[in-house]
Amino acid sequence: KTYKIAVIPGDGIGKEVMPEALRALSAVCQRFDILLEMTHIDWASCDYYTQHGTMMPDDWKTRLADMDAILFGAVGWPDSVPDHISLWGSLLQFRREFDQYINLRPVRLFEGVPCPLAGRKAGDIDFLVVRENTEGEYTNLGGRIFAGTEREVVIQESVFTRLGTDRVLKYAFELAKQRSRKHLTLATKSNGIAISMPWWDERADEVATGYPDVQLDKQHIDILSARFVLQPDRFDVVVASNLFGDILSDLGPACTGTIGLAPSANLNPEGRFPSLFEPVHGSAPDIYGRNIANPVAMIWSAALMLKFLGETAAHDALLHAIETVLVQGPRTPDLGGQASTTDMGVAIAQLI
Ligand code: NAI
Ligand code: MG
Question: Isopropylmalate dehydrogenase-like domain spans which residues (predicted)?
Fold first, then answer.
């Protein structure tokens, strides 16, 4: 089977980990007889912005619309472009214009990875964060008045729609229903954010009536964060608004050792638009150029892409290779090793 894939490395370590994902994909696609027709793209990067004054060409949407998926590295180079410009000019455009309303982020503690939480072993932590990805707290609605004076007032609205909230809740319930524990945690804050969050609770209760076999557990975001650290084994699927989900999905991977392992899928589940697969981490300017970034988050994201395209066996083979290398090494410095990005990528590709 042939799939059209847009490959966008972006900035910083995005440019270092992407080649390792392509290496692993090449190996696994050869083994499973999958053809990927790749389009390599240098825009959606701060280099492009520096040259053109914009993050992407005007016709970016038509250029990407007939792709089966987008594989994305990371965007952001704060020394040359402010983060809100680089992010809103690229990734957030993709998420919104392509209606990638699910941001799925697996959190798993692997064998061979030192866990920062005392007494946890592989298998204890294995859950999915489902983040709403198109609305909520991330809006451009608001403004400043009396700017720069003592009377300065700043307003930024959150926008939740019934369509947007119900569809992410339904997706999370469906996911929980397919898993053995059938447990769904809702991140809420209905005690403090007294309009939108009680409404989220209500929407969850209503959607829950369609899923009698799934157990719904509502937790305020503050204690929920604490429990990610103290009792990570109690989570199975966690559903959250855009902001809460963003925070939880960095905290989760941090509890499993390193953000360098965490993948994500930005999904338009109906397939009307291409979905986008990217590591959770950013461009890591502090380590860029040394070839020491952990490539696993990127490679696992490529595996999620294969799974979403229906190539489950290829996904499983990739994940197995990742698991094996995490046990045997080589390991990058964030995993306590001394290997390079390339060493680890080559080892994973060779196992396939
Ligand atoms: P970051 O994720 O780039 O880095 C945070 C810390 O984790 C750094 O110390 C970094 O060295 C480390 N790290 C990240 N990925 C790693 C890997 N694969 N292996 C080993 N260590 C790794 O987040 P930060 O520093 O807040 O942001 C840097 C830039 O990235 C900013 O411009 C930001 O806007 C952008 N960013 C982009 C994202 C995206 O493209 N989806 C997501 C997060 C940040
Ligand atoms: Mg984030």
Answer: 4-348
Residues 170-207 have pLDDT tens digits of 999 999 999 999 999 999 999 999 999 999 999 999 99
Calculate the dihedral angle through the C-alpha atoms of 218, 221, 222, 228, rounding to the nearest 10 degrees.
80
Output the pTM of the full model: 0.94
**pLDDT tens across 24-83, in order?**
999 999 999 999 999 999 999 999 999 999 999 999 999 999 999 999 999 999 999 999
Ligand number with the minimum distance to the CA of 264: 1
Measuring CA to CA, which residue among 269, 303, 295 is closest to residue 103?
A: 269
Distance 336 CA to ligand 2 centre (A): 23
Taken in order of first residue, the domains within the chain and their CATH numbers are 1-101+270-352 (3.40.718.10), 126-255 (3.40.718.10)
Alpha carbon separation from 195 to 5, 159, 190, 217 (Å, rounded)? 41, 11, 8, 20
Q: Read off the tokens for 64.
A: 């990407």
Q: Which residue type occupies 81?
A: V
Residue 179 DSSP SS3: coil
Residue with CA at minimum distance from ligand 1 atom 38: 282
Residue type, 57: P
Q: How high is the ipTM of this complex?
A: 0.98
248 C-alpha to center of ligand 2: Å?
A: 9
* SS3 at position 284: coil
Pocket test for ligand 1, best of 281, 287, 342, 343 (most atoms within 8 A of CB): 281
